[in-house]
User: Fold these one by one.
Assistant:
Number 1:
Amino acid sequence: MPKKRTAILWIRNDFRLHENPALTEAASFDELIPVYIWDEGNSNPWRPGEASKWWLHQTLKIFQKRLAELGSDLILLKGSPHEQLLHIAKKSGATAILWNCSYDPSESNIVKAVQKALHLKVDLQWFQGNILCSPEELCKKDGSPYLVYTPFWRNFLAKYSVTAATKSKKLPPLPKEFRAIEFCVEDLNLLSHLSWHEAFHKYWKPGEEEALKKVRNFFKKNLNKYDSYRNLPDTEGTSMLSPHFHFGEIHPQQVLRMIADEYGDLKKIRDPNIIQFMKEILWREFSYHLLQHFPKTPNQPLKEVYKDFPWKKNEKLFTAWTKGETGYPIVDAGMRQLWNTGWMHNRVRMITASFLIKHLGISWQEGAKWFWDTLVDADLANNTQGWQWTAGCGADAAPFFRIFNPIMQSEKFDPDGNYVAFWCPELKNLPPKWIYRPWQAPAKELAKACIILGVDYPHPVVDHRVARDKALWNYEWMRARQGSKARK
Ligand SMILES: Cc1cc2nc3c(=O)[nH]c(=O)nc-3n(C[C@H](O)[C@H](O)[C@H](O)COP(=O)(O)OP(=O)(O)OC[C@H]3O[C@@H](n4cnc5c(N)ncnc54)[C@H](O)[C@@H]3O)c2cc1C
């Protein structure tokens, strides 16, 4: 009898059956061992944060069930990937290990260790993960990376064509020696001992089926008004797909295919709502492109001049920001939305990030770390790009001197004050005119709304004008320092 062909399917960040090239390839073996390895000793500062671990816990459970429905299972292990893979390969006699790439900069070290430990023993095969084009594929003519978004998007659109859908319907069985063992997600101890994340169940349903349902719903109800509503945080103006994309529960290719099925050739679409939605999905690709080409950017500014920026350490102000107690209602509403739901609207991410960086003078890296721990969609590529963009030090970034005025931003994007009233209910009885600036409200209005400033809601932690001037001063100081360095 010919020897059975056994493979290991190493699950990284692709918790879906559709559009999963490693899984599709793995289906052709006689026996298959799908495995997820939680690298708990990993010293990477960007290992999943607390909110991400909550999502991971849920999605692992769901994915394990999905694989069981196809005749397989998900083996759950703790430890370093190369050691665990070597151990399973030896135990099972597997001749191949297949996986989809994750694009984290620590990936190359992990993969190098796997290659070193296993390449002589088994065939290693890796496939494209949950991005549309590999970061090397989409470069400028001279091979250098894009630093500006619009040509990146144009080049993508010119080159991209929608591919046929794939989905595995049946998987090979586990080898006998693995069948009797029960693997429980709980044993990975992913959930924080704080009960904080329990509320996330109210807002989120992880998993591939939920992601697909969400896209269909979004297409039916909101896509046709995306361009006008996407900036309004109190509406359901955006898809809220970001954690599903991050965990690979849905592939952006599936979303573009759905658009093509409904609206035809992507290159010929003229509807600004659909174009804008595709552009946002491509911002994600742009972030991955940048992270691959500039792997140090999670910790260092892309524009080197910003290394000299005179950031301030201030525990008290930072804590006020994290707790949503800065006295600026739109900032506080955003930070409370984040803490309560594990997510924040994109417009408000920009406002809160800008406030930390420019009004409080605290470094974008500190803010990025807080987001990293508290966002269910925390994504190293998007988070890095979002913070560097806001700080002015990233690719195609907003200039530093464009300082968001939190009051004007509120008036423009939350004109009725609904978003602020929802997340800062102590202010809900103030009329829209004062809800964004309670410190300027006449005593009569405050009394009518039953608010004592400093008791029911904080006084502003900084004065907008003073903070703005200080930020601009710091910026000019940094530039002058660069100039004097260049002259030396
Ligand atoms: C300071 C800051 C930090 C951020 N951190 C993250 C993060 O950790 N993870 C994350 O996924 N996004 C991050 N973003 C980008 C953006 O805020 C979220 O992707 C978006 O709010 C998710 O909501 P949605 O799914 O409803 O988006 P939609 O508007 O429905 O967009 C669809 C998808 O496109 C992608 N997308 C949308 N906007 C952006 C953008 N500006 N940059 C990159 N991709 C985008 C996302 O994958 C999103 O799910 C950050 C932005 C800022 C300003």
Note: The chain has 22 helices and five strands.
Number 2:
Amino acid sequence: MRDFLGSNIVNVKAHNMQAVLLSLLAADANQDQPLSRIQLAQKTNLSNTTITNLVAELIEQGMVSEDRPSRTADGEEQNRPVGRPRTGLRLVPNARYVVGIHIGVGLYRVALMNLRAEMLCSEMVNVDIQTSAEQVLERIGHSTLEMLAQCAVKRERVLGIGVGASGLVDVQNGVNLFAPNLNWHNIPIRDMLQSRVGLPVVVENNVRAMALGEAYFGQGREAQSLAFVYGRVGVGAGLVVGHELFRGSSTGAGEIGHMILAPEQGEACRCGNRGCLETLVAEPVLLHKAHQAAAANPAGLLADLLKQPDETPPIERLFQAARLGDADALHIVESAARWLGIALANLVNIFNPELIILGGMFAQGRDLILPVARHTLRQAAFARLGEKVRLETTRFGWRAGVTGAAALALLTFFYQQTSSIQATAAPAALYTQPSP
Ligand SMILES: [Zn+2]
């Protein structure tokens, strides 16, 4: 039977504080028009007294500042007939920080971000795919402590760490249950990082974290429902409904990479099935096809670009060859974009989101992939549903992973925290210095 929970007085306060902080965050996107106390009361449906008390607490903690409009300012303030001018309230972006950690395949990124998910410093580290999970997490812990020391922010202002990890994640316990691309099984990421760094840690699937990043700090701020679809070594989607992640009944919602598109004649997928989306559009698949085409046509532009001795990632060379009109490269990329469009049409038929944001290599090859995927989506989705959905690419670029992880930490330890605000500042004694 369902439980219908009441709320005690402490939770009521935390709940109200969430409404205030999230309203201030939403208003923060529109810098020209900060909210007044009265507007905040209207938006949250709280009394003026409650707003006054909560705002006083936030100002005292240095998290909110007051913006007194000048007498000569244009617009509304100038025209206000009588009474005090409205005081605008703004979040102080650097009042607190979080660490966002993106664990991908063969690399991790660590970044320090403020309350607006703006990056202050970051580090990217390549990891040999054979490295054990324990060693990878040990290194991530070290990188985090080093970055906190170098970035010179007051440590008591760092609220916690958000981790976006590849694969299936048990969010309650912060455990990576299964990451086939990393060969990780039951890795207690939260406990290992928490004891290494001494900060609270929250863990989520990396693509889901990216979806959250878009919903609160990116292009999805205004969307009631969105899907973030990421493609790299794997392909996955994060689904957000009403600004909340939809994880499904056993955290498997959004496994779009294993949407089966060619069950009989398709290639074998690492999941055990045939013809999954991943076998048609993932980066290694496209690169495999590119190398095959280059071997068949060694004098061609694609072969030439693939063997250039520079640092450009191979997928970028494939896109470059397609942009320069190489027929093989164009065929490989456009056929992947069509399959992606089919998968998106299926996604739209089931989930019908307002907005779909593409990330990873789909955003890298935006000029080539987006028009084809959009056209296919519109053709294939049921009853013109594909024409109503907005299809875009992320504007975060490579930052999408760390921004998503930081968003997860910001929501968990700040904007949607369930305890009183005073409890958020982590005690300084918890921190340990990085070993020299
Ligand atoms: Zn599969």
Note: The pocket of zinc ion is lined by residues 258, 269, 271, 273, 276, 278 (CB under 6 Å).
